[in-house]
Amino acid sequence: MEYYSSHINKLIEQLSHLPGIGAKSAQRLAFHIMNMPKDQVEQLTSSITGARENVQYCKCCCTLTDREICPICSNDKRDHSVIMVVENTRDLAAYEKTGKFDGVYHVLHGAISPMLGIGPDDIKLKELMQRLAKDEVKEVIIATNSSLEGETTAMYISKLIKPTGIKVSRIASGVPVGGDLEYIDEVAFFGGDGYEQVGFAYCSDKRSSEKEASLCLKRKQLLLTWQRGQESPRQLFPWS
C-alpha cells in the first residue's frame, strides 16, 4: 500500500541513494522540499544540474574544477616539483586550509580496496605516472588516509615511483593532541617502512602571528618521523 503520491515516493527513493541518507532522512528531506517555495526548489535543481554539467577533472591534477586547469595547478607561485597525492578533493581542501603546503596536488578519487573490488586501474594512478614522466618532479608526498585502503595505496604508489628515482615521502601520523603515549602504536611512532615521513600542522588560533603560531605548534603537537637507517625517530618541524 502506497501512503504517498508516486512523485513523492520517487523523490524519497532518489534521495535515499545519497550517502548517509536513510529512508527516514530521505522522507524528511522530501517533505521539506515539498514545503519550500517554488523558486528555491528551482534554484536547488539548477545548482545540482549546473554543477554536474560544468564541473570536470583538472587536466593536470584530476581535482574537481569548473576550469580546464584548476587554480592551484595554474599558479606559477606554487612549487610544481613537489606533488602531494590525496584520495579526494575534500582531502585536498583540508591540506590547503593549513596554508603550510606550497606545492601542487594529485587527486586519486579513491583508494585501492581488494575487498570492494577497487584496483589500481579504478583510480587516477595512470594519470599520476604520466604526470611524473613528463614533469620535472623532485618529490612525491603520499597523503592518503591511515586506513587499510590508504596504507595499501601508499605502499603501491611508493613501489611504482621508486624506480624513477623520485623521492617518495609519507605524511606523518604523529601523536594526537591530548593523546596518551601508552595508547599509541608503533605505526604512529615510526610510520611505514621504505619511505620518509614528513609532517606539518597549523595553529587554529587566527589571532596568532607566524612566530606565535610556530611556538603554539611546537607546544601543542609533536610529529614523529622515521627515516630508514636512523637509530631513532627525529622531530620534524618544517613550518618553523
Structural description of this entry:
The chain is an alpha/beta fold and 240 residues long. It has helices at residues 6-15, 23-35, 38-54, 89-98, 125-134, 148-161, 186-190, 210-220, and strands at 56-57, 64-65, 79-86, 103-107, 139-142, 167-171, 196-198, 224-225, 234-235. The strands form three sheets. The protein has a five-stranded parallel beta sheet. Helix 7 links the parallel strand 6 (167-171) and strand 7. The longest helix has 17 residues, at 38-54. The radius of gyration is 22 Å and the shape is elongated. Residues 200-209 and 211-240 have low confidence and may be disordered.
Strand order of the largest sheet: 4-3-5-6-7
- Tell me the number of strands: 9
Q: Which class of secondary structure composition applies to the elements? A: alpha/beta
Mean pLDDT: 79
Order of helices and strands: HHHEEEHEHEHEHEHEE
Portion in helices: 25-40%
Entry keywords:
two-stranded antiparallel sheet, 240 residues, disordered C terminus, alpha/beta, elongated, 5-stranded parallel beta sheet, 38% helix
Topology:
Layout: H1 6-15, H2 23-35, H3 38-54, E1 56-57, E2 64-65, E3 79-86, H4 89-98, E4 103-107, H5 125-134, E5 139-142, H6 148-161, E6 167-171, H7 186-190, E7 196-198, H8 210-220, E8 224-225, E9 234-235
Parallel strand pairs: 3-4, 3-5, 5-6, 6-7
Antiparallel strand pairs: 1-2, 8-9
Helix pairs in contact: 1-2
Task: Describe the structure in brief.
The protein has helices spanning 6-15, 23-35, 38-54, 89-98, 125-134, 148-161, 186-190, 210-220, and strands spanning 56-57, 64-65, 79-86, 103-107, 139-142, 167-171, 196-198, 224-225, 234-235. It has 240 residues and is α/β, with parallel strands linked by helices.
